């Protein structure tokens, strides 16, 4: 039991790290102030359990202030890990207090991970599962079943719908598998059960998209209480998630598919008109009334404001021009023709949303207002026409979402039409990019709605940039370092080859043979001295392909193979997964392996290389984003004009956060150890180095700023020899690991606050 | 020498050695050469002693064949028959090529075994030094009955050896060398071939199919190195290439591995993401388009290299862990997946994935320290539960009585030897005892002497014993005399030797009597 400024916190472990204490302190202050916070603490220092223990304690003590914790993480394994930690905490609670636990905590994931219907769950691909589920459970399908009982049915959903809603999920901690077990026992659909239970659960763990993507948030997270604490864990990429959820790309293929969709719609309308004309009339009436109902609900302030469905839309009825089904289809056709004509360009076009709207009005007389209702109108039509497989209509849904977005936002978006890819100017492949440049648009409703939002990750440096690009005012910002009994990380900046050639991945020297050769010899030398696993990251996939080919020709790879097996990331996720598994197998059985991978790739974002799976990580070059992209240029301009962030600052920030992500993959705890090699002379500059997280930065000594390959090898040998010595728990105690008594001593508290205030 | 009783496999005339004409004989177990006109061999090497053979390059005037022995010595034969020198040489070479590996393995195995025994047993090593290095007896004599013992006694021991994996770089070891005239030479050893077969079972299949019915071994490997299969960065797929099928099968294998998916959910990139954006949403950052048509040749060759490395590493890893299991099942698995049966691979029920926490096993140094402590603790409290043994006191008194200086050894002093003499002398004495014991063992094992071979051996052993007394025992006696130590330290040793000598005399006199 810890005392955090008067709040008694149950902590389920015997020992605590000093930084966990500081973290909880800062977190409590944020909650007290009912504000938002940005907190950086290295991975492997128990961030998750600190967050959970403090917020649960807060919830228990002030149930009226904070009634729900919404914990957002990025990947499914991470979500499951959080729930397991939570389970540990809850078990500890009931052991300490002797009462049975009355908290309900659950994880939510997509149907793919929760479905227990034997046929549907065998599909494995997310979209197919969703589509199939929809064909069994959509409301009008179920209505049809009343007249035709032979239609297929999902008995899990039916049973849940019949009984499940009356019986709330009993208190406890439910991971994805627990939900499935519970569902199987009761014959209820775990997915809808979880979604339904979201409303009264005390703790919800799910993925970012359920809160940030308006298309999903509207369905799932609409009614969550305002008195919630929202945590975004691993949030270093949150701006990109926001932008992705608001951007649309339209290619010629999309338009072709859309064309078929529209024709199907038209035929269906024709058919319905002949058989059941009243349906369409009812829809016409419902359209006016339905939107009014939504309007009423909105005024009571329980709904999340939806960027696709902006505020003012609800004050009015759907415009008369698209109110009937035929008119709407005609409208869609015109819009489609217009888009087709726009894609027929021969040069790159870039314009703002008002320009686009003006052009569309001039050319095909489409007003802004009906465009705004497009998405809502389509949804209503699909419902009326009782179309089972929504997945087939993804193209037309995409187009109407685009219509709504483009007519709603006059700022923060840009439209770029590229007739061909930059690298293949002879092949026509026109794409219309409607791209969001302002991450704050998607996240704004979250900040406005919930009383506390915590943004946290192992790598958030420099801290001040996140509040600027996400446009919010945090009450606390802190970066915690990792207290260490032994220096278990060894960052080295290798700036030169043994022949004094400057090493860099910058554009001018990218093809330089000397650089490629020196990179090769760095990897080769390291493969000879580092035990078990080495992970190497390249700045882009193209760059890696070229270097691997050059190394192959020069026989460098063959020499490396004498020491370790080589595995390489490919653009294909399944292939890479297999390579990863083999890589781990090779590390496990002592043969040792090297994984060549790409910054910003799937591996760098989601895979941890604990202990022997990663004893060294080499970052070849500075992972700048591909700067020639027009979308990026537009975004940089926007950042400069709106947020006064200079282009170079942002690019460097972006490159360094990815570099930090990559090298941070190898240190996942205090007993872990690993080399971090930055192989580019530009890392030595203060403006780059200064943007690394504090827990890495403080271990870069002045002597290791511009090493040659040989020097780096010498230092590494020394480091590895030291790290191979036995490391006892007693060595950590009192320094980087504290018992309760040690924590409560006056002297230690002073020391902790001293460390924390260096920020 | 009894050369003619051996089976002669090949006779080559007109072979010069040290500028002397003569004839080369290749026999079942050795190669020999005798100068012209004489009926004895001046050169004779056992195949087992030969490390390798070397031949002179094709273009050279002198056509030679060189044998390199394990000892490092070498013998060169010059084939001087004008008309058929090259043919003769090649015939000899071919035969040697077949013979040498057989003996090589045997020789290596024996050598390894001997080495291992010496390394594992320090007493034996000391004995070896005392007796063989100082040339009291020859190495052959020393090993004569030792190796036999171990081989019969414990065959499981040698079988139990850990299987050796495959070097990841075995293909790199086949460094092609230019032979000067627009060609490449690959050095291929038996080890590399085995590695290739173990790593790429499909190649082995091809080998069994084609060699020697369709192709010679040499042709097979030439084609292998020329094939696109070996050079993955080349993308021309010739249909006449026998290896294109291998490549296809490999690709199938790789595909089926990929389709099978991974067991560890932590590395499964496909199920990592919870909710991916639908098609068409998101900022378009994927630069390389997936359609193959607009990829340049260079790019697809690059990605072929990458695929190849992944596949190669996976196969090497698999070959290491495959052990006894035949690689055939992998092939049969892939051969099933033709045409429409591919779907069945696709729709196999999803593998039940084990829970996350099943994948956390790593022994930290703290764990190791803990377990060592635990074992130490266990050992301290260990009480052997033995029923039919002497108590330790009786056992040690019995040992004392039986040791030299003990009651049963009738030595004068009752005082323990270890208090009287410096430890260095003790050590030396111990070695002497061991050496003498070994020699005496050899000596006594000759009785009863009933074959001429035994007679010969017993005489030799007697002289060995005498030599031992002269070179080892006497210097030691002088040494202890110089240090004024009691001389009867060696009394027992001498006694033992004397017993042996007298036995020898008795045997000799009896033999004389019988002869006369």
Intertermini distance of chain A = 27 Å
**Strand segment count of chain A:** 21
Give a short account of the largest sheet of chain B. Answer: 7 strands, antiparallel
Q: Please state the overall shape of chain B, judged from the principal axes of the Cα atoms.
A: flat
Write the element-wise H/E pattern of chain B from the N-terminal end onward: EEEEEEEHHHHEEHHHHHHHHHHHHH
The percent of residues in helical segments of chain A reads 40-55%
Strand content of chain B: 5-15%
Overall 3D geometry of chain A? Answer: globular
* Terminus-to-terminus distance of chain B: 31 Å
The order of strands across the largest sheet of chain A is 6-5-7-4-8-13-3-14
Secondary-structure blueprint:
The complex is a heterodimer of chains A (759) and B (516).
Chain A: E1 2-4, E2 7-9, H1 18-32, E3 36-40, H2 47-61, E4 68-73, H3 76-97, E5 104-107, H4 111-114, H5 118-121, H6 126-137, H7 139-147, H8 155-164, E6 172-174, H9 176-186, H10 190-197, E7 203-207, H11 209-212, H12 214-220, E8 228-232, H13 238-246, E9 248-251, H14 252-275, H15 277-299, H16 325-342, E10 349-351, H17 353-364, H18 368-372, H19 374-384, H20 394-408, E11 413-420, E12 428-436, H21 440-449, E13 452-457, H22 465-470, E14 474-479, E15 489-496, H23 513-529, E16 533-538, H24 541-554, H25 556-563, E17 565-568, H26 573-588, E18 593-598, H27 602-606, E19 616-620, H28 630-643, H29 647-664, E20 674-679, H30 686-689, H31 694-697, E21 707-708, H32 709-723, H33 729-732, H34 740-744, H35 746-756
Parallel strand pairs in A: 3-13, 3-14, 4-7, 4-8, 5-6, 5-7, 8-13, 15-20, 15-21, 16-18, 16-19, 17-18, 19-20
Antiparallel strand pairs in A: 1-2, 9-12, 10-11, 11-12
Helix pairs in contact in A: 1-2, 2-3, 9-10, 13-21, 14-15, 14-16, 14-20, 15-19, 19-20, 23-24, 23-25, 23-32
Chain B: E1 8-17, E2 20-27, E3 30-35, E4 43-46, E5 50-55, E6 63-69, E7 74-79, H1 85-120, H2 122-133, H3 139-153, H4 155-159, E8 177-178, E9 184-185, H5 190-199, H6 201-210, H7 217-226, H8 244-260, H9 297-322, H10 328-336, H11 342-346, H12 365-380, H13 392-402, H14 417-420, H15 423-444, H16 452-482, H17 491-515
Antiparallel strand pairs in B: 1-2, 1-7, 2-3, 3-4, 5-6, 6-7, 8-9
Helix pairs in contact in B: 1-2, 2-15, 5-6, 8-10, 15-16, 15-17, 16-17
Protein name (chain A): General transcription and DNA repair factor IIH helicase subunit XPD
Catalytic activity (chain A): ATP + H2O = ADP + phosphate + H(+)
Pfam families (chain A): DEAD_2, HBB, Helicase_C_2
């Amino acid at each position: 039991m810890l005392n955090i400024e008067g709040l008694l916190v149950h902590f389920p472990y015997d020992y605590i790290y000093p930084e966990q204490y500081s973290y909880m302190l800062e977190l409590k202050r944020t909650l007290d102030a009912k504000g938002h916070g940005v907190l950086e603490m290295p991975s492997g220092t128990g961030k998750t359990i600190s967050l959970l223990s403090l917020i649960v304690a807060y919830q228990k003590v002030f149930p009226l202030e904070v009634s729900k914790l919404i914990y957002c993480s990025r990947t499914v394994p991470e979500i499951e890990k959080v729930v397991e930690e939570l389970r540990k905490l809850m078990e500890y609670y009931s052991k300490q207090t002797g009462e049975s636990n009355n908290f309900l905590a659950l994880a939510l994931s997509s149907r793919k991970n929760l479905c227990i219907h034997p046929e549907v769950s065998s599909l494995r691909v997310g979209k197919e599962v969703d589509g199939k589920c929809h064909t069994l459970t959509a409301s009008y399908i179920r209505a049809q079943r009343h007249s035709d009982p032979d239609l297929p049915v999902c008995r899990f959903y039916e049973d849940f719908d019949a009984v499940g809603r009356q019986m709330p999920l009993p208190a406890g901690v439910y991971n994805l598998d627990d939900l499935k077990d519970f569902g199987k026992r009761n014959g209820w659909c775990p997915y809808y059960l979880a979604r339904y239970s979201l409303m009264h659960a005390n703790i919800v763990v799910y993925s970012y998209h359920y809160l940030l993507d308006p298309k999903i948030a509207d369905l799932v997270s609409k009614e969550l209480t305002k008195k919630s604490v929202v945590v975004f864990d691993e949030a270093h990429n949150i701006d990109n998630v926001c932008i992705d959820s608001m951007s649309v790309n339209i290619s010629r293929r999309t338009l072709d598919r859309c064309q078929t969709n529209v024709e199907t719609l038209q035929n269906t309308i024709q058919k319905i008109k002949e058989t059941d004309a009243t349906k369409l009339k009812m829809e016409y009436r419902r359209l006016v009334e339905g939107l009014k109902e939504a309007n009423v609900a909105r005024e009571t302030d329980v709904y999340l404001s939806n960027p696709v469905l902006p505020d003012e839309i609800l004050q009015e009825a759907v415009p008369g021009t698209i109110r009937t089904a035929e008119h709407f289809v005609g409208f869609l056709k015109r819009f489609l023709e217009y888009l087709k004509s726009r894609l027929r360009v021969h040069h790159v076009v870039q314009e703002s949303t008002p320009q686009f709207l003006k052009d569309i009005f001039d050319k095909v007389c489409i007003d802004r207002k009906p465009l705004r209702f497009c998405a809502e109108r389509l949804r209503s039509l699909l419902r009326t026409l009782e179309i089972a497989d929504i997945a087939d209509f993804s193209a037309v849904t995409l187009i109407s979402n685009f219509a709504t977005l483009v007519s709603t936002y006059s700022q923060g978006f840009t439209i770029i039409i590229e007739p061909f890819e930059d690298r293949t100017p002879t092949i026509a492949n026109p794409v219309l990019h409607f791209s969001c440049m302002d991450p704050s648009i998607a996240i704004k409703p979250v900040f406005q709605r919930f009383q506390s939002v915590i943004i946290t990750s192992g790598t958030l440096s420099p801290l001040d940039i996140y509040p600027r690009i996400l446009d919010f005012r945090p009450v606390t910002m802190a970066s915690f370092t990792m207290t260490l009994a032994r220096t278990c990380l060894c960052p080295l900046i290798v700036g030169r080859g043994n022949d004094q050639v400057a090493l860099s991945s910058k554009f001018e020297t990218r093809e330089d043979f000397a650089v490629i050769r020196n990179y090769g010899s760095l990897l080769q030398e390291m493969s000879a001295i580092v035990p078990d696993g080495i992970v190497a990251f390249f700045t882009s996939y193209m760059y890696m392909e070229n270097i691997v080919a050059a190394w192959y020709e020069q026989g460098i790879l063959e020499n490396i193979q004498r020491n370790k097996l080589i595995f390489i990331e490919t653009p294909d996720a399944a292939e890479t997964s297999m390579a990863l598994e083999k890589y781990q197998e090779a590390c496990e059985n002592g043969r040792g392996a090297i994984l060549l991978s790409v910054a910003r790739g799937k591996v760098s974002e989601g895979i941890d290389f604990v202990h022997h799976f990663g004893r060294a990580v080499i970052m070849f070059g500075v992972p700048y984003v591909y700067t020639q992209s027009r979308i990026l240029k537009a975004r940089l301009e926007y950042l400069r004009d709106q947020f006064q962030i200079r282009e170079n600052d942002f690019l460097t920030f972006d490159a360094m956060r990815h570099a930090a992500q990559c090298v941070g993959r190898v240190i996942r705890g205090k007993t872990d150890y690993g080399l971090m090699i930055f192989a580019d002379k530009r890392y030595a500059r203060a403006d780059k180095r200064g943007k690394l997280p504090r827990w890495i930065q403080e271990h870069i000594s002045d002597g290791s700023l511009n090493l040659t390959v040989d020097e780096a090898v010498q230092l590494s040998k020394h480091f590895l020899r030291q790290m191979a010595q036995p490391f006892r728990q007693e060595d950590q105690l009192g320094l980087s690991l504290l018992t309760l008594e040690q924590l409560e001593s006056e002297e230690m508290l002073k020391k902790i606050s001293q460390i924390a205030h260096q920020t | 020498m009894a050369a003619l009783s051996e089976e002669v496999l090949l006779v080559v005339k007109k072979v010069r050695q040290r500028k002397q004409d003569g004839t080369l004989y290749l026999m079942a177990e050795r190669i020999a050469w005798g100068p012209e006109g004489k009926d004895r061999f001046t050169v004779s090497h056992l195949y087992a002693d030969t490390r390798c053979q070397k031949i002179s390059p094709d273009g050279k005037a002198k056509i030679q064949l060189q044998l390199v022995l394990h000892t490092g010595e070498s013998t060169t034969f010059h084939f001087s028959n004008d008309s058929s020198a090259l043919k003769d040489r090649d015939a000899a070479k071919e035969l040697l090529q077949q013979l040498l590996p057989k003996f090589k393995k045997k020789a290596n195995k024996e050598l390894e075994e001997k080495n291992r025994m010496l390394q594992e047993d320090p007493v034996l090593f000391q004995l070896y030094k005392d007796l063989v290095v100082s040339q009291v007896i020859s190495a052959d004599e020393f090993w004569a009955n030792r190796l036999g013992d171990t081989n019969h006694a414990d065959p499981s021991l040698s079988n139990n050896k850990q299987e050796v994996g495959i070097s990841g770089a075995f293909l790199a070891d086949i460094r092609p060398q230019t032979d000067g005239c627009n060609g490449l030479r690959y050095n291929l050893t038996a080890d590399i071939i085995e590695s290739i077969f173990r790593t790429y079972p499909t190649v082995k299949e091809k080998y069994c199919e084609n060699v020697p019915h369709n192709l010679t071994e040499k042709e097979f490997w030439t084609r292998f190195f020329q094939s696109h299969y070996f050079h993955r960065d080349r993308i021309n797929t010739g249909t006449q290439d026998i290896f294109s099928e291998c490549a296809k099968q490999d690709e199938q294998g790789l595909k089926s591995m990929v389709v099978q998916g991974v067991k560890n959910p932590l590395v499964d990139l496909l199920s990592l993401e919870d909710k991916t954006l639908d098609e068409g949403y998101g900022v378009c950052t994927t630069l390389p388009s997936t359609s193959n048509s607009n990829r340049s040749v260079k790019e697809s060759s690059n990605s072929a290299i990458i695929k190849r490395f992944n596949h190669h590493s996976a196969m090497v890893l698999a070959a290491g862990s495959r052990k006894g299991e035949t690689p055939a099942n992998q092939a049969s698995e892939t051969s099933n997946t033709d045409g429409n049966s591919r779907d069945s691979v696709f729709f196999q029920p999803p593998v039940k994935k084990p829970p996350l926490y099943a994948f956390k096993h790593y022994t930290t140094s703290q764990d190791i320290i803990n377990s060592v402590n635990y074992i130490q603790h266990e050992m301290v409290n260990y009480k052997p539960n033995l029923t039919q043994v002497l108590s330790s006191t009786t056992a040690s008194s019995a040992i004392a009585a039986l040791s030299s200086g003990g009651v049963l050894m009738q030595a004068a002093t009752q005082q323990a030897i270890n208090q009287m003499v410096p430890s260095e002398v003790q050590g030396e004495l111990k070695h002497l005892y061991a050496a003498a014991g070994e020699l005496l063992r050899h000596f006594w094992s000759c009785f009863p002497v009933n074959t001429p071979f035994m007679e010969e051996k017993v005489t030799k052993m007697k002289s060995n014993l005498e030599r031992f007394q002269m070179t080892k025992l006497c210097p030691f006696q002088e040494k202890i005399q110089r240090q004024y130590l009691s001389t009867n330290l060696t009394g027992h040793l001498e006694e033992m030797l004397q017993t042996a000598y007298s036995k020898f005399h008795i045997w000799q006199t009896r033999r004389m009597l019988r002869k006369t």
